[in-house]
Amino acid sequence: MTLADPANASQSPPVNRALRVLFIASLVVSCAPSGDDPLSRLDTWEAPTGDYRIRYLAPPWAIIEEDLDGARFQIESTLMASGRIDGGVGKYELQTSRVPRSVEAEMDREVRASRGVAGRSIEEGPRAITTHEGIEGLELITFDVPDPFERYRRVVLFPLGASQTLRLDFDATPDLDSDEVTEMIRLVGIGPAS
């Protein structure tokens, strides 16, 4: 091509500008969360005080109620989902709350209380658990014999500071010592959102 040749359409200023805009747009899109990123599919509930966050998959999890202290999440049982019963306990339940004790003091209280419940056995723990952010806590898994149904409980405690503890009370018919529940616990955010 010489200077006397007409400009190629692909080299015209409007085309070059459009190509640059498309290139920049593709960079922005490639940096956005993708549907392949598991965290992009999660909802986040933040405590009104801003000191902790629960990440959950909705559906099947749904927020049933919330207040200044915490929230109650649920996955409906098959009977609830089919409309054959209204209300009651779900297949999975999660209640979050804040307690005015250290993690260790609250776990001691929980172990003593669990040992005092007829038909309840301690399956695992107390044992350590750590969030993806590196916050260390304790957990206890118990099992209640059928009365009227068998239920597993998983109590998880994380420090919030100022002698406050975040308490996660999982309650379910299926065994709660599962990879899915453990991952949900490890995704808990402690402290102000960044």
Describe the structure.
This protein has a single domain (38-190), classed as Protein Transport Mog1p, Chain A (3-Layer(aba) Sandwich), CATH 3.40.1000. Helices cover 23% and strands 36% of the residues. The protein has 4 helices and 10 strands; from the N terminus they run H-E-E-E-E-H-E-H-E-E-E-E-H-E. A hairpin with a 4-residue loop joins strand 3 (62-66) and strand 4. Residues 18-34 have low confidence and may be disordered.
SSE map:
Elements: H1 13-31, E1 43-46, E2 52-56, E3 62-66, E4 71-75, H2 78-81, E5 92-99, H3 103-115, E6 120-130, E7 136-144, E8 151-161, E9 164-172, H4 179-186, E10 189-190
Antiparallel strand pairs: 1-2, 2-10, 3-4, 4-5, 5-9, 6-7, 7-8, 8-9
Main features:
alpha+beta, Protein Transport Mog1p, Chain A, 194 residues, seven-stranded antiparallel sheet, three-stranded antiparallel sheet
State the end-to-end distance.
54 Å
Average pLDDT value?
Answer: 81
In the CATH classification, which architecture applies? 3-Layer(aba) Sandwich
Number of domains: 1
**DSSP strand tally:** 10
Structural class: alpha+beta
The H-and-E topology, N to C, reads as HEEEEHEHEEEEHE
Q: Which value, in Å, is the CA radius of gyration?
A: 25 Å
CATH topology: Protein Transport Mog1p, Chain A
Q: Strand share of the residues?
A: 35-45%
**Residue runs with pLDDT of under 50 for 5 or more positions:** 18-34
Number of H- or I-type helical stretches: 4
> What would CATH call the homologous superfamily?
Mog1/PsbP, alpha/beta/alpha sandwich
CATH class (first level) name: Alpha Beta
Strand order across the largest sheet: 3-4-5-9-8-7-6
Main pleated sheet: 7 strands, antiparallel
**What is the share of helical residues?**
10-25%
Per the principal axes of the C-alpha atoms, what is the gross shape?
A: globular
